[in-house]
Design a protein that fits this description.
The protein is of the alpha/beta class. It has a single domain, classed as Rossmann fold (3-Layer(aba) Sandwich). The chain is about 40% helix and about 20% strand. The protein contains seven helices and nine strands. A five-stranded parallel sheet has the order 2-7-1-8-9, sandwiched between helices. The longest helix is centred in the C-terminal third of the chain and has 17 residues, at about 170-185. It binds guanosine-5'-monophosphate. Guanosine-5'-monophosphate binds near residues 81, 82, 104 and 105.
Length: about 190
């Protein structure tokens, strides 16, 4: 059995994680993205099986009962998100897997995979910058925005438990730093 290699990116919503994740996947063509399951509805442009597996709560709960999740979390009230065992089963050094999951999910993956997982926390320069980015993105209404900021505040208290923290003050710089971290993790014996 080859040892899996998992790269976990975590960040408060709006911290720029999705852009960085995309760049990591471009830079490491053998890396696959772990498509999570979720009960939240798709946003415009999101595709089932590509961005997420969009499931009903009933279907999600059935997968929980079947033991199909490596980790799952109620990230927002009534909104379940989880990493499917089948998405990371094939992870190896030659074919690492990238996960884009929340803080608690990331820490659970670390507990389980230890040194075989690299957990990176992408941090916004400040909560004010984060709020501005979320408003500009415009994917959330006022209530959802407040909920995301509240959650970001909580998530920032966990940063010490990650292998590395990257401040996204500038997307190019933060991307370069992330790529270096991933490169050295993947080249480790
Ligand atoms: P969004 O709704 O903005 O796509 O994602 C909301 C949050 O859920 C993000 O922090 C995202 O990383 C997290 N998330 C996505 N998939 C998973 C997953 O499989 N497990 C966990 N624990 N969190 C996830």
């Amino acid at each position: 059995m080859p040892e899996p290699r998992l790269v976990v990116l975590t960040a408060p919503s709006g911290a720029g994680k999705t852009s960085i994740a995309r760049r990591v996947l471009q830079a490491f063509p053998n890396m696959r993205f772990s498509v999570s399951a979720t009960t939240r509805p798709p946003r415009p442009g999101e595709r089932n099986g590509v961005d997420y597996y969009f499931l009903s709560e009933e279907a999600f709960r059935e997968l929980i009962r079947d033991g199909q999740f490596v980790e799952y979390e109620e990230v927002y009230p009534g909104r379940l998100y989880g990493t499917l065992r089948s998405e990371i089963d094939a992870a190896s050094r030659a074919h690492p897997v990238l996960l884009d999951i929340d803080v608690k999910g990331a820490l659970r993956i670390k507990e389980r995979f230890g040194e075989e997982a690299l957990a990176i926390f992408i941090k916004p320069p400040s909560l004010e910058v984060l709020a501005d980015r979320l408003r500009t993105r415009g994917t959330e209404n006022a209530a959802a925005l407040a909920e995301r900021l509240e959650r970001a505040r909580m998530e920032l208290t966990y940063e010490d438990r990650f292998d590395a923290v990257v401040v996204n003050d500038d997307l190019e710089r933060a991307t370069a730093e992330t790529l270096n971290l991933v490169r050295s993790f993947l080249s480790r014996p």
